[in-house]
Write a structure and sequence with these properties.
- By secondary structure, the protein is mainly β.
- Helices cover 13% and strands 44% of the residues.
- A 14-stranded mixed sheet has the order 9-10-11-12-13-14-15-1-2-3-4-5-6-16.
Length: 277
Amino acid sequence: MRFESCVVAALLASAAGCAHGPAAGDAAAALPILAATREELVRRVDADAAAVASVKGTLAVAFAERAGGDPRSCSAVLVARAPRPAEEAAGLYLKGYRALVPTLFTLVSDGRTFWLHVPRDNVVYTGPVASRGAAAVRGVRLEAGDLFRALFLQPLGGAEALEVAEEPSAYVVSARRAGRVARRLWIERRRFTVEREAYYDAEGREEVSIDRERFVDAGGHLYPERLRVRDAVTGASVTLRFEKLAVNPTDVRAEAFRPRTPAGARVVAVGGGGNAT
């Protein structure tokens, strides 16, 4: 698609000018262990969540169908805007490719619905973001909702109740909603970044976990260069490793989050727990 080609070209051109490449190492390891109250932890998490409105860059993406499985990888370009009810609509654009394959897949979402185009099959899978498990295509899981969670930290202020457990190198914060633990965060005690999160279903079972590593200063904000999203049930995972990264870029366009169905493509509606295969 001509529009898609323009989006990718713009992303590659702007990402080439980003100042943030792979970090030489984790500078936080040399910092002292600090203490914080529950109120301070909430303020820090909420401030970090509010600080990042959008991200874009070039990256490597690795997919594993199960825990311990051999990953498959590709290069990718990404642009995303945070899901914030009071502001502009959320958005996600992720295009995977290899040297000899211009497009492996294109995932687009407006925060409510996802569209996943697989050129090899000339099929567009589409469905609600809230339906986890709906975007399994050829053994690759691309959950737009989980990617939003990984890319954009959510605030803690709306939790019904918070429980804080202190560990030697981290605070473990459990957020309750409707009387159950809905989310758990591991906040390291040197810079108070959220290195791990887990989300739980209505029965208290872990649904998905998010690991964040190699935090760098990107535009005055600490942001992870490596993120891994893991499905707790299947063990399937998606790992994003940024090679060039821009936080809060000024040229994010809404057009990037508007899907275009290629001529002749078959559209398959998925959701409600079903998979597209």
